[in-house]
Amino acid sequence: MWKKSLFFKIVYILFFSKFVRTSGAEVGEPLYLTPLLDEGKVAEAQQSSKVQPDIGNITSYCGYFTTNKECKSNLFFWYFPAQRNSGKAPVVLWFPNTSGKPDKTDTIMYSLFEEIGPFAYQNGTV
């Protein structure tokens, strides 16, 4: 069943990605943090993953963790520390749309603005 779900997600991404328009801004290469962590470079991994500039004065970090080196599988994350009591607050892992049916809720951006992130999109503004 998971293979079917994965297949539909890949098809969805490939199909709709040709309609996405970018600003032409250079975004650089993906940030794979596992090699840094394997070498014990935790501070460098943290600094490298910090999103610049802070969006709305909210600190966040993002990148990829390698989940299977042989298959070159990686997991994207976007971490927002708790705005209050961040040292004691639990970490929530949010996996959007686990139904296996591709729709607009498959994207991290949808989750960020509509479901669980620290931002809201209302009347054309963030």
UniProtKB/TrEMBL annotation:
Keywords in alphabetical order: Signal
Pfam families named in the record: Peptidase_S10
Top-rank taxon, per record: Eukaryota
Signal peptide stretch: 1-24
GO MF entries: serine-type carboxypeptidase activity
GO terms for biological process, alphabetical: proteolysis
InterPro entries referenced in this protein's UniProt entry, alphabetically: AB_hydrolase_fold, Peptidase_S10
Keyword flag Signal: yes
UniProt family annotation: Belongs to the peptidase S10 family.
Protein name per UniProt: Uncharacterized protein
Species in which this protein is naturally found: Homalodisca liturata
